[in-house]
Structures are given as C-alpha cells and as structure tokens.
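Example with several molecule types.
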Amino acid sequence: MATPSKDMRIAIVGGGLAGLAAAMRIAEGGHAVDLFSVVPVKRSHSVCAQGGINGAVNTKGEGDSPWKHFDDTVYGGDFLANQPPVKAMCEMAPSIIYLFDRMGVPFSRTKEGLLDFRRFGGTLHHRTAFAGASTGQQLLYALDEQVRRYEAAGKVKKYEHWEMLSLVQDEHGVCRGLVAMERATLELKVFPADAVIIATGGPGLIFGKSTNSMVCTGSAVSACYQQGARYANGEFIQVHPTSIPGEDKLRLMSESARGEGGRVWVPKTKGDKRTPSSIPESERWYFLEEKYPAYGNLVPRDIATREIFQVCLDGFGIGGENQVYLDLTHIPTETLDQKLGAILEIYEMFVGDDPRHVPMRIFPGVHYSMGGLWVDYDQRTNVPGLLAAGECDYSIHGANRLGANSLVSCVYGGFVAAPAALEYAKNLQRNGADGSRIYDQELRRQQEINNQLLKQTGTENQYVIHEEMGKWMTDNVTVVRYNDRLKATDEKLLELIDRYQHISINDSNMWATHALPHARQLYNMLQLARVITLGALNRNESRGAHYKPDFPNRDDEQFLKTTLAEFSGEGPVFSWEAVDIGLLPPRKRDYSKGTEQKKPEGEEQKPRDLSAPAVWDQNKEQVRDVDHGEAETRTQQGKSIEEAGGKSDKL
Amino acid sequence: MSAQANGHAKQTRRTPPEFVDIRIKRRENPDAPQRWEEFRIPYRPNLNIISCLMEIRKNPVTKDGTRTTPPVWEMNCLEQVCGICTMVINGRVRQSCSALVDQLDLPITLEPMSKFPNIRDLVVDRSQMFEHLKRVHAWIEIDGSYDLGPGPRMTPDEVAERYAYSRCMTCGCCLEACPQYEGDNYIGPQAIAQVRLMNMHPSGKATRDERLEGIMGEDGITNCGNAQNCVRVCPMSIPLTKAIYEENRETIIHGLFGWLKK
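Resulting structure tokens for the full complex:
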C-alpha cells in the first residue's frame, strides 16, 4: 500500500479569478500548483467584468446582511440553486472584499476613506464594491500579483499558451492528471496531478458572438463532460440586457450604468426618427420603470432582457430596429467619469458617440452560463479527483445570476476548491507501476485525434461551421425558446457534427497555428451546444433566464430540479436531481413589488467551516453529504448509461 | 490623445470605400524571413482590425488571388482591456480590437511589435514583461489570504492616483515606442509604473526598498532618455513619465541614504 505523499501537486486549468484564487490558496498552504492557461493569466476573461463585486458589508445604514444577500441571490435565481453553498458564499463575501482591499485593489472610497458601495440589479441595497468600472480587471490583477509572488518563490509553475485537451483517468475513472497542448509547437504532454481543478469560465463562443472573450469556448469543460463529468443546468444561459452590437463581438455595457442611475427608454411613437435629445420627456417610454416601480431599471437581467426584447419585437425599438436607449445624459459628467469612466470609454471607442451627451444604443447579448459542471458543496465533480470552480461550475446562480455576483462566486469557488483538492490529495493512494500506462494511452489517444484532423481533406470550413452553430444557437436557444425550434436546432447541430468530420484544417503551416486548436474547440463546443439545447427542450416551464411562451409559468411541481446531462456516444443522457431548498421555501418571483423574505427566527449565521474533512471515495460514485430528497439521477436509480437511453462507448 | 500620428485619419471618411486593402507583415516561424502580403476585403461600416482579420482568416486568399495560410494574431477580450491583440497599425503601436477602419488611412498596414521575439505573423512573445514584474516585486506582501479584516483606509484622492496606474494591462505599447528599449536592455516604463503603484499603497510602503532596488541596476530606471513616447502611446493613459520622475527621485534618495537603514 502506498503511503500518502506530503508533496501534493494540484493542476489548475484556467487562470481567471477562480483559478488564481485556488492557486493562491494552494501555494499559500505550501503545495505545488501547475497552472494551465490558453492566454497569459493576466489576460483572462475576468478582466472584462466591469461593475463590481457583491458583499453585504452594510456600510450605508440600510440593514443589509449576508442573509439578505443570500435571499436576493436565491430569489434572483428563481430558486433553482441548492441553497447551502449560496448561503456560504454570501457569508464569505464581505471577507473576500476585505481581502482584495488588503491586496491593494483601488476600490472606490467614501470621503471617510472607507469602501464605497453601489447598487446593482435584483437588490434594494448598496452592496457592490467597485474599482471605477473596471472591477474585474483590478481583482484579477490583485490575484495575478499574489500568484506571481508564489511563482517567483517556486510554488506555482505556469503553463501559459497551453491548452488542456483531456483528463487522464485510471481504470476506476479517477482523474490522475491531464493532457495539454502547447499552442506554438502543438506538442502534447501529460501532466500527472493529485487533483485537477477546472476553472475555465463560460462557453459564450458557442453562440458565435457574445460578450465573452475569445478563449471562452467551454472546450475544456466539454472535454471533461465527454469523459464522464456531469453537466448541470446547461439550458440556463444569461442574456445580458445591455450590450453594444459589434461585427466581431457584443461588447458589454455594464449593469453599473443603471446602478448609477442610467435609464432605459424608447420613443413612445413607433419608428420615431428624431434624435434622442429632441424627444421630450413626455414622449419617452421608460418601460422598466413603469412596469417595475420598486426596482425600476435594476430588475434582474433576465427580466430586463425579455422586456427589451419584447419592446423591440412590438416595433418600439429605436427607428424600428433592435435597439433601445440607455441614457446617462442626466447625470453630471464628473460623476460619470469618476464612477463609470472605463465603460464610457469603451462605448466611445467602439461606437464613436459620447455617452455623457448622447444616449447609448444597446441590445441584449449572450453573457453568462449559470449551468456548468455539476459539483457538490465542496466544488467536487462526480469524477473523483476533478473539481470545478467559477463560471464553469453550476452551483450558485440557479436560473439567473444577479449582477456583481459572478466575481464573488469565482473567488468563493476557488477558495472552497483549493482545500477540498488538498484534502482529497492527502488521502489519495498514488497508483504504482501501471501509472505510466494510463498516461501514455491518453497521450496517444489525443495525438491520434490531432493526426486524424490534420489528415482530413474535406471541403467543409471550420469557421463556417462555427458561424452556423453560433447563429442557430443565438436565434433559437437564447431569450425566447420554442420546442419545435429547439428540436430543429438539435438536428442542425447533428448535421454540423457530421459536417465537422469533413473539415480540412484551414492552415498548412502548423507552427503556432490557431486552426488546429480551433478545430478541437469546435468539436467540444458542438457537443456542449447539444447539452444546452436539449436541456432547454426538456424543461417545459419558464424559470429565470429560461423562457418558453408555450409554458409561461414556473412549474415547481415538475421542474424544481437540476438538469443533469451525461455524455454517451449517442448524445447527452438526461436525469434530474431535486434542489436543496431547506433554508428558503420557494415563493413567487415578482419584481413589480419590493418584497423580501424575513430571516427565520433563531437562524444562526456562522461562517461555514471549510476545514471539515471531505468524504470522497476514489473508486466509487460521489458520496453525498446532503440529502436532496427524491432520488432521481441515473446513478441513484442504479441504471447504466445504456438503460437510461444512451450508449456508453466513449469517442 | 495627442498621438494622431501619420496614417490615422482624424475624421471619418465622407464616402465609404468599396474595399479595404490590408498589408500584413508575415513570418512563418521565428527562423523564417519576414515578407509582406496584401489582402482585400469588402468594406462594411464599423469594421475593426479584428473583424478584417477574421474575414481574411476564413478564406485566406491574397489580393492577387493566391491561396495562402491564414494570418495568425492573438486576440481575447476585444474591449481593449486584456492587451493581447497589440500590434503596429499604420506605423503606430496599439490594440487591434479598438482600431476602427473608418478612422484609418487606407491601405492599412499591420506589423508585429518589433521589440519582442516574433513567433509567427503578428504574434510576439512578451513574457519578458512578466519577468520584469517579478523582479520589481509588483505585489503587496500580505500576511495571508485568510480573513484579517479590511485594508488600510485611503482617501478618494489617493485611490484615484493609484487607480490610474492600476489599469496597466502589460500590453507592451510603451516598450515598443521607447527609443531606449531594445533587446530587453531596460526595465521600462510599465514595470516602473507598477513600482509606483505598489509603493504608494500604505502596506506596499513596507517593502518599498526591494522594489526600488529592482529598478536600480544597469538596465534600470536611469536608461530612460526622456523621449516621452511611452506616455503618448499608452492606451490606458497611464501617467508613465510621472512614475518615472517620481521613482527616479526615490531611487536617488535610496541610493544616497539607503545604507543608513542597514
């Protein structure tokens, strides 16, 4: 029997906020980290987060508390999230903000020198700490700096410009490391690890154009899914109400614009061709304020998005087009520069108008995936040795994410995953002589996939297939969903998967090519697109970001359940798991009034003990530490993939 | 910004052109010579350089109809906040995502940055900049990431001054434009500005001397020739020359009196 080794090595895939948070914690504990990232970690997508980070610090005398943050988050997510981790996150949030404060983030401050907080969507409290309008950039840099400190001390080894292709699993399905590809040389290499933490962010590129950065393909997550990790609630895709349409991407216009008083409106007369400034107040329709007097322009994103979408569908968009005004011109220029400077510059730079004087023209754009890898309350997936944190896990946001909750959930996820990974690694039995065999096998398998792609000489173009996938997904699997169109989209995806077999790599120079990595990502995106589409097809209700006009109401009886997708050779196999609603009973979500649940009497609000030992059997299915009520997942029913309607042969 | 260098039309053109011609300086691999290739794409309003490159990549054929390999460039956020897509456009270093065709003279020329190793086409290796950040200890030495309460209080003015420096995305524009910087012989404005950022922080002051020593060597701050190109090309409008001025003074004082502390 092998003795547990002291020098643990954890592989982290993704160098955004979640990955760096985990890396810092593990290195701080004195353990080794291999950190993989497609781009230098300082250039990760977290830099795009603008508005802020939520934490109920209650410095404004509003009686805010972590419990209210928890209530807002669960309610905003339409009760689809398991509640214990959400509560734990909200309790940790103030200390996360303070930690970033200590690390030197230039948070905006009050005159007294304390942290300032602004309002954000889905809450009535000033709960969002911010650094101008580039909060994500500042938070990421703070972690980047701390991780660089550990890198200089030899604790963290960065593999930047390396892309993870697959996990290495032993015969029991335990994750023992990963295979990654160096982007310049296309060299493949195995990296043994005691545990792997996936922190690769969202899959926005599946929708072609989104607010996501170009690395947000979801490719690594899809690879894990195809190797047995469950993907949960894939159908919940957040479409942000305010983005700037562009040729190459949709640029985010932060919710903080509305948090600082920005107003959304359209002319009351359809097709009004006048300039916005010449339209008098009485002829403007502030439709969000009219419909939601308490929250006004700060209703949750799914609601704002649907309202904007509907207004344009009804022909009230500016000049009859798919655009509405987001107006800041009534706010003093000085205030705008101080609190929103960075995002106003983005608008000015890419559109050419000055939003301080001309209302911005905006439209909803795909922004965030609430769904992701299934994890337990310690961020562990169902694959032993594989953890996930950040946007790529499904755990916090339910059916809709509130603004400024993503940064806090990323850091929380990283901070929970790190000790859980170490705890697991500590008890891990290292495999002996046959160790190298599993690595060699997986390396060969990945090399063969590359060789096959390079050999192909078909007539299909990989970028055209990507564009078609993006268009179909955007048209049919975003704001409004119909079952017939979802079915047609899945058929289209199957057609694209078939056509994918006939692409020829669009570059003949393999040195530092982007064509081969893109082809690998494209395949993985197509697989994940099916999970998103079929998940939406199965869910015949409307909840949070998932809206079907044919099923306009939330149906707790049938669908207060987490969708679980498992890969099989014939596509995703679905099962459902009950949601842990032990802390807050579900209530109707209605933002037309300002309501909020009272905290039950005697509820203790102790921070969660993160040092508790993790129960995780390497060779068996996940050991659950919570009772989710009704047992419904495939494994809980004791069914094999075949019995559940799938085909088990892995590709 | 004052840097409306040649080739950067100030005004939007009155009559839109039918095509956009783009000349790209290419290199197959680090050992191959550089060569120019010209491409032509149909004009559309609101094109940026990234959209043009995407269009070319989809079907890489040169202007004279010859099939070629797709030009390779780096891109990520496309909002000018990650810094990765930096290149030399019409002779000026900047991010390609925020370079709008309507504001550029035609034909457009794209070149990789010249001060860093060229990997392929428009891709360069800027890892030396991150090494510089290690050398100057560009971090706050916190005791640990566990809960120790809030950080030190600061006035809004102090925060505003630090915020300006904190936006550096390590894109390399300042080094590309610096006449002194060649072959990694000078630590450069970006690292010096980060020293300023960290040394202004109340906790960062504790390890101030380590950072000053990081910029005092042979390739240190004294290499600055005061050309002030860095501050002109910085896409984040970071007061780089101010940082160099302040830190130069600090290093002199440290050089003169630092031994007294030992």
